[in-house]
UniProtKB/TrEMBL annotation:
The keyword Nucleus does not apply. This is ATP phosphoribosyltransferase regulatory subunit. The gene is hisZ. It is found in: Cytoplasm. HAMAP family: HisZ. It comes from Limosilactobacillus gastricus PS3. Pathway: Amino-acid biosynthesis; L-histidine biosynthesis; L-histidine from 5-phospho-alpha-D-ribose 1-diphosphate: step 1/9.
Length: 389
């Protein structure tokens, strides 16, 4: 056993893969800056109660025991630390925040995922208007155009829909939870058994069709045309369809509706949106509205919309940018100042650190770079013996 190998689910990043991640970081921050977002950075470790509203098994969290007995948690989520920050500071709201950071979740390695993930995201806090959701959706569309050649599909759903449907069925908390669990996990035998007592009721037909209500806005409208749904359910579906129709007007953007989609976390309250490609088995982008996010910290219901962007997943899916050709400059010891001036004037130049021309040629060949020589007259000439093309 190699004691220096990495644990399962962790990975080193180097070279072009790391370059792609850094390009994405730069692109996203630049985009967020253009839209007036304020950067925020929270620590990797938080007190465990910060993540009380995070829906995961307790064993999936990484914990650190302090000398004073307090338990710290390595964050599995980046939204809840921002909620903690807002609840303990006097930052004026409404406001818009952007971030890039790492989080860790245990047991992801057994699902083929990395335990440590890099996520970029935005939080629009204090905005009740649906314009906040629209801004997120237009950002996703811009990412789709700039990086995915319009192959990114947006999927819409709503947390409110399941609650509105079950309000028509039962008030029993355990029964509602069981139905939702079977529905979201696509456990159809269990789901069908659970809804059987209500199949003859006013929304019995909808309950039977619910797991399969996935498609375009036109398809969903056709499926529900004569359903006779109660007004609260119909209103939520019409809101989702309105968002979908907005998205269809964005350049090259595909959109689907899933009326049986599960919220990413239990603090979500309204519209949820996700984005994926045919090449991925998990979502690249995930977000939505969570108007009760801060209520768990300071007892105030403050409207909020946000989304997270999986930079690792993006880096895996997009074609890496072709790096600019690099040039190494070889010079004598007494020419270092002049050579450094040339390096400062050209972004793709760098100083060859070799002590001899022979070594410089060998290193340039190894690095797959062009070699140029600063001659005795101070002229920069191509090394014809080491041309890269």
């Amino acid at each position: 056993m190699n004691q220096y190998r990495l644990p399962v689910g962790l990975k080193d990043y180097y070279g072009s893969r790391l370059d792609t991640k850094e390009q994405l970081r730069h692109y996203l921050f630049q985009r967020f800056d253009q839209l007036g977002y304020h950067k925020i950075q929270t620590p990797l470790l938080e007190y465990e109660p910060v993540f009380a509203e995070y829906e995961t098994e307790s064993r999936d969290l990484y914990r650190v025991l302090e000398a004073d007995g307090n338990v710290l948690t390595i964050r599995p989520d980046l939204t809840l630390p921002i909620a903690r920050f807002l609840s303990t500071t006097n930052v004026a709201l409404p406001n818009k925040f952007s971030y890039v950071g790492e989080f860790m979740q245990r047991h992801r390695e057994y699902q083929g995922f990395e335990r440590e993930q890099t996520q970029a995201g935005i939080e629009l806090v204090g905005y009740p208007s649906t314009k906040a959701e629209f801004e997120c959706l237009t950002i996703i569309n811009q990412i789709n155009q700039d990086w995915f050649d319009n192959s990114l599909v947006i999927e819409l759903g709503s947390v409110d829909l399941a609650e509105a449907v079950l309000d028509q069925v039962t008030k029993d908390h355990d029964q509602r939870r069981a139905i939702k669990q079977a529905l979201f996990q696509k456990n159809l035998p269990v789901y069908e058994k659970l809804i059987e007592p209500y199949s003859a009721g006013p929304i019995g037909t909808f309950l039977k069709e619910w797991p399969w209500l996935f498609g375009s806005s036109a398809e969903i409208e056709e499926l529900l045309k004569d359903s006779g749904l109660p007004a609260p359910i119909k209103k939520i579906i019409q809101q989702i369809i309105a968002f979908a129709q907005f998205i269809t007007n964005l350049p090259g953007q595909s959109v689907m509706i899933d009326l049986a989609s599960k919220a990413p976390q239990k603090y979500y309250t309204g519209l949820i949106f996700k984005a994926y490609t045919a090449q991925s088995n998990q979502y690249v982008i995930s977000g939505g509205r969570y108007d009760q996010l801060l209520a768990n910290v300071n007892s105030k219901n403050i409207p909020a919309v946000g989304m997270g962007i999986n930079i690792q997943m993006m880096a895996e899916l997009i074609s890496p940018a072709t790096p600019a050709s690099r040039v190494e400059i070889y010079c004598q010891q007494d020419q270092l100042f002049a050579a450094q001036q040339l390096v400062n004037q050209h972004v793709n130049y760098e100083l060859s650190l070799a002590d001899s021309l022979r070594e410089a040629r060998s290193l340039a060949h190894q690095h797959q770079r062009q070699l140029m020589i600063l001659n005795e007259k101070g002229e920069l000439i191509n090394d014809l013996e080491n041309r890269t093309n």
